[in-house]
Amino acid sequence: MTTAFPPKDPAAVLDYQVDWSAWLAEGETINEGAVAIAAPGLTVNPAGKTTAVSGGKVTFWLGGGVAETFCDVSCQVTTSAGRTDRRTIPLRVAARSIT
Q: What domain of life does the native source organism fall in (predicted)?
């Protein structure tokens, strides 16, 4: 299971992934994945990007954010067995440089 994301630059639009495969029972699949975040200026799936579910993983995009802030990214899934669960993963937004 994903436990932390690397820092994100406020100008970056990046894809992130939460891997639920170890949590799923044999033969169980994810029917729906949803991502929520409450952070200033940070957007889930900006510019027409979408959340995708494939092979026990939920992939989504984040854009924007305010440098030097921390936030929690929540990923909730509903499975073919009718189970619903949520994981919250920390994310730091920080100005990144090429050095």
A: Bacteria
